[in-house]
Amino acid sequence: MSQAYRDAGVDIAAQDRALDRIKSLVKSTTTPGVLSELGSFGGLFRPDLKGIEDPVLVASADGVGTKLAVAREAGDFSTVGGDLVNHCVNDILVQGAVPLFFLDYIGTGVLEPDSVVALVDGVARACRANGCALLGGELAEMPGFYQPGDHELVGFVVGMLDRSLLLDGSRVQAGDVLIGLPSAGLHTNGYSLARRVLFDQLGLAIGDAVPGLQDRRSVGELLLDPHLSYLDALRPFLRHPGLHGLAHITGGGLTDNLPRILPKKTHAFIRLGSWEVPELFGALQQHGGVSDEEMLQVFNMGIGMVAVVAPDALGEMLADLKKRGAKAVPIGSIQKGGAGVVYDAPPDRPSVGDLSGNDSGSAGEA
Q: Cβ distance 140 to 107 under 8 Å?
Protein backbone atom coordinates (compact mmCIF):
# COMPACT_ATOMS: atom_id res chain seq x y z
CA MET A 1 0.00 0.00 0.00
CA SER A 2 2.79 2.39 0.87
CA GLN A 3 4.46 1.73 -2.50
CA ALA A 4 1.22 2.35 -4.40
CA TYR A 5 0.57 5.52 -2.40
CA ARG A 6 4.13 6.68 -3.06
CA ASP A 7 3.65 6.00 -6.77
CA ALA A 8 0.56 8.23 -6.56
CA GLY A 9 2.74 11.01 -5.15
CA VAL A 10 2.29 10.65 -1.37
CA ASP A 11 5.33 9.54 0.63
CA ILE A 12 4.20 8.31 4.04
CA ALA A 13 7.79 7.61 5.08
CA ALA A 14 8.72 11.25 4.44
CA GLN A 15 5.75 12.35 6.53
CA ASP A 16 6.87 10.10 9.37
CA ARG A 17 10.41 11.52 9.23
CA ALA A 18 9.07 15.06 9.35
CA LEU A 19 6.69 14.27 12.22
CA ASP A 20 9.47 12.68 14.26
CA ARG A 21 11.38 15.97 14.08
CA ILE A 22 8.25 18.03 14.72
CA LYS A 23 7.33 16.21 17.94
CA SER A 24 10.12 17.87 19.94
CA LEU A 25 9.14 21.28 18.58
CA VAL A 26 5.54 20.79 19.70
CA LYS A 27 6.64 19.53 23.12
CA SER A 28 8.77 22.66 23.62
CA THR A 29 5.59 24.79 23.62
CA THR A 30 3.79 22.80 26.32
CA THR A 31 1.98 24.91 28.92
CA PRO A 32 0.29 23.75 32.17
CA GLY A 33 -3.09 23.43 30.44
CA VAL A 34 -1.99 20.86 27.86
CA LEU A 35 -3.41 17.36 28.57
CA SER A 36 -2.50 15.56 25.33
CA GLU A 37 0.50 14.77 23.18
CA LEU A 38 1.03 15.07 19.43
CA GLY A 39 -0.63 12.14 17.70
CA SER A 40 -3.99 12.27 19.43
CA PHE A 41 -7.06 12.69 17.26
CA GLY A 42 -7.75 15.95 19.07
CA GLY A 43 -5.74 18.20 21.34
CA LEU A 44 -6.84 18.46 24.96
CA PHE A 45 -6.50 21.67 26.95
CA ARG A 46 -7.71 22.57 30.43
CA PRO A 47 -7.74 26.37 30.94
CA ASP A 48 -6.88 27.95 34.27
CA LEU A 49 -10.00 29.91 35.26
CA LYS A 50 -8.55 31.34 38.46
CA GLY A 51 -9.49 35.00 38.81
CA ILE A 52 -11.86 34.89 35.82
CA GLU A 53 -15.51 35.36 36.76
CA ASP A 54 -17.10 35.06 33.33
CA PRO A 55 -14.71 33.31 30.91
CA VAL A 56 -15.10 33.91 27.19
CA LEU A 57 -13.19 32.04 24.48
CA VAL A 58 -12.01 33.97 21.43
CA ALA A 59 -10.92 32.12 18.29
CA SER A 60 -9.40 33.21 14.99
CA ALA A 61 -7.95 31.64 11.85
CA ASP A 62 -5.65 33.13 9.23
CA GLY A 63 -2.86 32.48 6.77
CA VAL A 64 0.26 34.30 5.57
CA GLY A 65 -0.87 34.67 1.96
CA THR A 66 1.64 35.09 -0.83
CA LYS A 67 4.42 35.90 1.62
CA LEU A 68 4.93 32.14 1.29
CA ALA A 69 5.88 32.69 -2.35
CA VAL A 70 8.66 35.03 -1.22
CA ALA A 71 9.83 32.46 1.33
CA ARG A 72 9.88 29.78 -1.36
CA GLU A 73 11.85 32.01 -3.74
CA ALA A 74 14.32 32.91 -0.98
CA GLY A 75 14.59 29.28 0.11
CA ASP A 76 13.89 30.39 3.68
CA PHE A 77 10.83 29.07 5.51
CA SER A 78 12.20 29.86 8.97
CA THR A 79 10.20 33.05 9.63
CA VAL A 80 6.73 32.69 8.10
CA GLY A 81 5.57 30.26 10.80
CA GLY A 82 6.20 32.97 13.37
CA ASP A 83 4.38 35.49 11.19
CA LEU A 84 1.34 33.26 11.22
CA VAL A 85 1.23 32.88 15.01
CA ASN A 86 1.81 36.58 15.66
CA HIS A 87 -0.88 37.58 13.17
CA CYS A 88 -3.44 35.28 14.83
CA VAL A 89 -2.43 36.35 18.34
CA ASN A 90 -2.90 40.00 17.40
CA ASP A 91 -6.33 39.24 15.97
CA ILE A 92 -7.65 38.00 19.31
CA LEU A 93 -5.61 40.51 21.33
CA VAL A 94 -7.70 43.35 19.89
CA GLN A 95 -10.70 41.91 21.74
CA GLY A 96 -8.74 41.68 24.97
CA ALA A 97 -7.87 37.97 24.82
CA VAL A 98 -4.55 36.27 25.51
CA PRO A 99 -3.79 33.02 23.64
CA LEU A 100 -4.23 29.58 25.17
CA PHE A 101 -3.30 27.31 22.29
CA PHE A 102 -2.58 27.25 18.57
CA LEU A 103 -3.08 24.72 15.77
CA ASP A 104 -1.57 24.75 12.30
CA TYR A 105 -2.31 23.30 8.88
CA ILE A 106 0.43 22.73 6.31
CA GLY A 107 -0.49 21.63 2.81
CA THR A 108 2.09 20.74 0.19
CA GLY A 109 2.38 19.09 -3.21
CA VAL A 110 5.55 17.11 -2.55
CA LEU A 111 6.52 16.83 1.08
CA GLU A 112 9.98 18.22 1.75
CA PRO A 113 10.79 17.38 5.40
CA ASP A 114 13.33 20.19 5.84
CA SER A 115 10.91 22.86 4.61
CA VAL A 116 8.03 21.54 6.70
CA VAL A 117 10.18 21.34 9.83
CA ALA A 118 11.37 24.92 9.23
CA LEU A 119 7.74 26.08 9.01
CA VAL A 120 6.78 24.31 12.23
CA ASP A 121 9.93 25.51 13.98
CA GLY A 122 8.86 29.09 13.27
CA VAL A 123 5.38 28.34 14.60
CA ALA A 124 6.81 26.75 17.76
CA ARG A 125 9.22 29.62 18.46
CA ALA A 126 6.42 32.15 18.19
CA CYS A 127 4.12 30.03 20.36
CA ARG A 128 6.76 29.96 23.08
CA ALA A 129 7.27 33.72 22.78
CA ASN A 130 3.53 34.34 23.09
CA GLY A 131 3.07 31.85 25.93
CA CYS A 132 0.66 29.57 24.09
CA ALA A 133 0.83 25.86 23.35
CA LEU A 134 1.10 24.37 19.88
CA LEU A 135 -1.62 21.84 20.59
CA GLY A 136 -1.68 20.01 17.28
CA GLY A 137 -2.14 20.41 13.56
CA GLU A 138 -2.40 18.76 10.18
CA LEU A 139 0.24 17.93 7.58
CA ALA A 140 -1.34 17.19 4.18
CA GLU A 141 0.53 16.04 1.07
CA MET A 142 -1.75 16.53 -1.94
CA PRO A 143 0.01 16.07 -5.29
CA GLY A 144 -1.98 17.45 -8.19
CA PHE A 145 -3.68 20.01 -5.97
CA TYR A 146 -0.56 21.80 -4.74
CA GLN A 147 2.33 21.98 -7.20
CA PRO A 148 5.85 20.77 -6.28
CA GLY A 149 7.48 23.43 -4.11
CA ASP A 150 4.16 24.94 -3.06
CA HIS A 151 3.18 25.18 0.59
CA GLU A 152 0.03 26.39 2.28
CA LEU A 153 0.22 27.53 5.88
CA VAL A 154 -2.85 28.28 7.97
CA GLY A 155 -3.20 28.78 11.71
CA PHE A 156 -5.95 28.67 14.31
CA VAL A 157 -5.68 30.30 17.72
CA VAL A 158 -7.93 30.11 20.78
CA GLY A 159 -7.64 32.61 23.62
CA MET A 160 -9.63 33.65 26.66
CA LEU A 161 -10.63 36.71 28.63
CA ASP A 162 -13.03 37.75 31.35
CA ARG A 163 -16.16 39.06 29.67
CA SER A 164 -16.05 42.26 31.73
CA LEU A 165 -12.78 43.14 29.98
CA LEU A 166 -14.02 42.51 26.42
CA LEU A 167 -12.84 45.13 23.94
CA ASP A 168 -15.68 45.27 21.41
CA GLY A 169 -15.65 48.96 20.48
CA SER A 170 -18.40 49.88 22.95
CA ARG A 171 -15.98 51.94 25.08
CA VAL A 172 -14.64 53.97 22.14
CA GLN A 173 -15.89 57.55 22.12
CA ALA A 174 -15.23 60.94 20.59
CA GLY A 175 -12.18 62.58 22.16
CA ASP A 176 -10.21 59.34 22.51
CA VAL A 177 -6.64 59.40 21.24
CA LEU A 178 -5.15 56.96 18.74
CA ILE A 179 -1.74 55.50 19.59
CA GLY A 180 0.12 53.84 16.75
CA LEU A 181 2.55 50.97 17.36
CA PRO A 182 5.04 50.52 14.51
CA SER A 183 5.08 47.55 12.17
CA ALA A 184 8.17 45.80 10.84
CA GLY A 185 7.47 46.30 7.16
CA LEU A 186 4.56 44.72 5.32
CA HIS A 187 3.81 42.10 7.99
CA THR A 188 1.60 39.63 6.07
CA ASN A 189 -0.50 41.84 3.79
CA GLY A 190 -0.10 43.49 0.42
CA TYR A 191 2.35 40.93 -0.94
CA SER A 192 0.57 40.35 -4.24
CA LEU A 193 0.98 44.04 -5.09
CA ALA A 194 4.49 44.28 -3.64
CA ARG A 195 5.65 41.24 -5.61
CA ARG A 196 4.18 42.63 -8.82
CA VAL A 197 5.97 45.96 -8.36
CA LEU A 198 9.33 44.58 -7.24
CA PHE A 199 9.62 41.42 -9.31
CA ASP A 200 7.44 42.03 -12.37
CA GLN A 201 7.70 45.78 -12.95
CA LEU A 202 11.25 46.41 -11.65
CA GLY A 203 12.53 43.00 -12.69
CA LEU A 204 14.39 42.47 -9.42
CA ALA A 205 15.67 39.09 -8.30
CA ILE A 206 15.18 37.86 -4.75
CA GLY A 207 18.78 38.74 -3.85
CA ASP A 208 18.79 42.25 -5.36
CA ALA A 209 18.61 45.48 -3.39
CA VAL A 210 15.72 47.87 -4.05
CA PRO A 211 16.91 50.91 -6.05
CA GLY A 212 17.06 54.13 -4.05
CA LEU A 213 16.65 52.61 -0.58
CA GLN A 214 19.13 53.37 2.18
CA ASP A 215 18.45 49.87 3.50
CA ARG A 216 20.63 47.77 1.21
CA ARG A 217 19.24 44.43 2.31
CA SER A 218 17.93 42.21 -0.45
CA VAL A 219 14.32 42.18 -1.61
CA GLY A 220 13.91 38.81 0.04
CA GLU A 221 15.19 40.04 3.39
CA LEU A 222 12.97 43.14 3.29
CA LEU A 223 9.85 41.19 2.40
CA LEU A 224 10.52 38.53 5.03
CA ASP A 225 10.73 41.03 7.89
CA PRO A 226 8.60 39.56 10.70
CA HIS A 227 4.97 40.21 11.50
CA LEU A 228 5.26 41.53 15.05
CA SER A 229 3.23 40.38 18.02
CA TYR A 230 1.93 43.19 20.25
CA LEU A 231 0.92 40.94 23.13
CA ASP A 232 3.86 41.73 25.42
CA ALA A 233 3.52 45.45 24.80
CA LEU A 234 -0.22 45.62 25.42
CA ARG A 235 -0.93 42.85 27.92
CA PRO A 236 -0.42 45.18 30.95
CA PHE A 237 -3.17 47.48 29.64
CA LEU A 238 -5.86 44.86 29.05
CA ARG A 239 -7.32 45.59 32.50
CA HIS A 240 -6.68 49.34 32.30
CA PRO A 241 -9.91 51.38 32.16
CA GLY A 242 -8.17 53.88 29.90
CA LEU A 243 -7.79 51.36 27.07
CA HIS A 244 -10.98 51.68 25.03
CA GLY A 245 -10.16 49.69 21.90
CA LEU A 246 -7.55 48.04 19.69
CA ALA A 247 -7.30 47.59 15.92
CA HIS A 248 -4.88 45.22 14.20
CA ILE A 249 -3.78 46.94 10.98
CA THR A 250 -3.68 44.14 8.42
CA GLY A 251 -5.31 43.80 5.00
CA GLY A 252 -7.33 46.94 4.41
CA GLY A 253 -4.82 49.15 6.20
CA LEU A 254 -5.89 51.94 8.52
CA THR A 255 -8.71 52.80 6.11
CA ASP A 256 -10.66 49.58 6.59
CA ASN A 257 -9.54 48.30 9.99
CA LEU A 258 -10.13 51.31 12.23
CA PRO A 259 -13.84 51.63 11.30
CA ARG A 260 -14.40 48.10 12.63
CA ILE A 261 -14.25 49.45 16.18
CA LEU A 262 -15.81 52.90 15.68
CA PRO A 263 -19.20 53.76 17.19
CA LYS A 264 -21.84 55.23 14.90
CA LYS A 265 -21.61 58.92 14.03
CA THR A 266 -17.86 59.10 14.74
CA HIS A 267 -14.78 58.99 12.54
CA ALA A 268 -11.10 58.38 13.04
CA PHE A 269 -8.94 61.40 12.30
CA ILE A 270 -5.39 60.44 11.25
CA ARG A 271 -2.58 62.97 10.99
CA LEU A 272 -0.26 61.82 8.23
CA GLY A 273 3.24 62.89 9.23
CA SER A 274 2.92 61.87 12.87
CA TRP A 275 4.89 58.64 12.38
CA GLU A 276 7.75 57.48 10.22
CA VAL A 277 6.76 55.35 7.26
CA PRO A 278 9.38 52.71 6.33
CA GLU A 279 11.05 53.65 3.05
CA LEU A 280 9.99 50.40 1.38
CA PHE A 281 6.42 51.73 1.18
CA GLY A 282 7.64 54.85 -0.61
CA ALA A 283 9.50 52.71 -3.13
CA LEU A 284 6.40 50.59 -3.77
CA GLN A 285 4.30 53.69 -4.34
CA GLN A 286 6.84 55.38 -6.59
CA HIS A 287 7.74 52.40 -8.75
CA GLY A 288 4.20 51.00 -8.83
CA GLY A 289 2.41 54.27 -9.50
CA VAL A 290 0.06 53.53 -6.60
CA SER A 291 -2.25 56.29 -5.35
CA ASP A 292 -2.25 57.57 -1.77
CA GLU A 293 -5.71 56.11 -1.22
CA GLU A 294 -4.70 52.65 -2.39
CA MET A 295 -1.46 52.66 -0.38
CA LEU A 296 -3.42 53.41 2.79
CA GLN A 297 -5.94 50.67 2.05
CA VAL A 298 -3.55 47.91 0.92
CA PHE A 299 -0.61 48.36 3.30
CA ASN A 300 -0.21 49.07 7.01
CA MET A 301 2.12 51.98 6.12
CA GLY A 302 4.29 51.38 9.17
CA ILE A 303 1.54 51.04 11.80
CA GLY A 304 0.82 47.47 12.89
CA MET A 305 -1.55 48.13 15.80
CA VAL A 306 -3.64 51.07 16.97
CA ALA A 307 -4.70 51.54 20.57
CA VAL A 308 -7.68 53.80 21.31
CA VAL A 309 -7.14 55.38 24.72
CA ALA A 310 -8.78 57.93 26.96
CA PRO A 311 -6.98 61.31 26.84
CA ASP A 312 -6.17 61.21 30.57
CA ALA A 313 -4.45 57.83 30.13
CA LEU A 314 -2.32 58.86 27.16
CA GLY A 315 0.76 60.00 29.07
CA GLU A 316 0.80 56.97 31.35
CA MET A 317 0.46 54.49 28.51
CA LEU A 318 3.10 56.13 26.32
CA ALA A 319 5.53 56.22 29.26
CA ASP A 320 4.92 52.56 30.13
CA LEU A 321 5.31 51.47 26.53
CA LYS A 322 8.58 53.38 26.29
CA LYS A 323 9.89 51.71 29.46
CA ARG A 324 9.36 48.32 27.87
CA GLY A 325 11.04 49.37 24.64
CA ALA A 326 7.83 49.57 22.62
CA LYS A 327 7.85 52.53 20.27
CA ALA A 328 4.48 54.24 20.11
CA VAL A 329 3.25 57.65 18.97
CA PRO A 330 -0.09 59.50 18.94
CA ILE A 331 -1.34 59.47 15.34
CA GLY A 332 -4.85 60.89 15.62
CA SER A 333 -8.12 60.87 17.50
CA ILE A 334 -11.77 59.85 17.45
CA GLN A 335 -14.02 62.73 16.47
CA LYS A 336 -17.76 63.35 16.31
CA GLY A 337 -19.73 63.01 13.11
CA GLY A 338 -19.19 61.28 9.84
CA ALA A 339 -17.81 57.78 9.51
CA GLY A 340 -14.68 55.91 8.52
CA VAL A 341 -11.22 57.47 8.45
CA VAL A 342 -10.30 61.04 7.59
CA TYR A 343 -6.66 61.81 6.76
CA ASP A 344 -5.01 65.17 7.22
CA ALA A 345 -1.78 65.61 5.29
CA PRO A 346 0.73 68.47 5.41
CA PRO A 347 0.21 70.52 2.22
CA ASP A 348 3.87 70.22 1.14
CA ARG A 349 3.93 66.41 1.27
CA PRO A 350 3.21 64.96 -2.19
CA SER A 351 2.46 61.34 -1.26
CA VAL A 352 1.98 59.09 1.75
CA GLY A 353 5.11 57.14 0.92
CA ASP A 354 7.27 60.24 1.33
CA LEU A 355 6.54 60.45 5.04
CA SER A 356 9.88 60.53 6.83
CA GLY A 357 9.45 62.15 10.21
CA ASN A 358 7.19 63.03 13.11
CA ASP A 359 4.83 65.98 12.93
CA SER A 360 4.86 67.89 16.22
CA GLY A 361 1.26 69.01 15.86
CA SER A 362 -1.52 67.83 18.14
CA ALA A 363 -2.77 64.40 17.22
CA GLY A 364 -6.31 65.34 18.10
CA GLU A 365 -6.43 68.64 16.24
CA ALA A 366 -8.75 68.75 13.25
A: yes
